[in-house]
Design goal:
188 residues; alpha/beta; 4-stranded mixed beta sheet; 46% helix; elongated
């Protein structure tokens, strides 16, 4: 993943408190690699791992009031804008095709519980990101490019087949000519 810029505005006083309050995170022009392999993809795997971690934290319970051993986070404003998704799959030989990523704007992450664990915060952000990646707009753009690429691959394949047939025919003609010369030379 590459990013043009990341801006973080944090309430510095909250760093030593619980929850940590982040006023704003803005991620500008990320280029996110989306790797699809069979029925799974890299984001589904990441999201499942984050959810599993967040679920384990919930199962063990949140820290008691006044217990600052487990930090909680509140993000008041999260923005991801001007992004692009790059699909990489073995079907297209590891090459990538891309689509604009719809902007994401989330507010008050973790605020209702007076802060969420880092895993819960990531789960919410990655959940929204994944929903945008697999949204109809993004998928339609990527599928359209795959179809174009498929027709280009088909035409390249037809060209190669035609040239191979021509070469095969030329080789057969040359072989027949050589056979008749050898027969003529040997007197058969």
């Amino acid at each position: 993943m590459t990013v043009k810029s990341i801006y973080i505005d944090m309430n510095e006083k909250s760093v030593l408190e619980n929850p940590i309050v982040i006023e704003k995170i803005e991620i500008v022009a990320p280029e996110i690699t989306y790797e699809k392999k069979g029925e799974t993809d890299n984001f589904k795997s990441i999201l499942n791992n984050i959810k599993r971690t967040a679920g384990m934290e919930k199962a063990t319970g949140k820290p008691a009031a006044g217990d600052d051993t487990k930090k909680r986070i509140i993000i008041k404003d999260f923005v991801l804008r001007d992004g692009k998704i790059k699909l990489v799959t073995s079907i297209i030989g590891g090459e990538g095709i891309s689509s604009p990523l719809p902007d994401i704007h989330l507010t008050n992450i973790g605020e209702k519980d007076n802060g969420s664990s880092p895993a819960e915060v990531l789960s919410e952000i990655f959940g929204k990101l994944y929903a945008q990646i697999i949204s109809p707009d993004v998928m339609n753009t990527l599928n359209s490019q795959l179809e174009e690429l498929g027709s280009n691959i088909d035409s390249i394949g037809k060209d190669i087949t035609s040239k191979a047939e021509t070469i095969g025919s030329d080789i057969k003609k040359e072989t027949d000519t050589l056979k008749s010369r050898i027969k003529g030379f040997l007197g058969d």
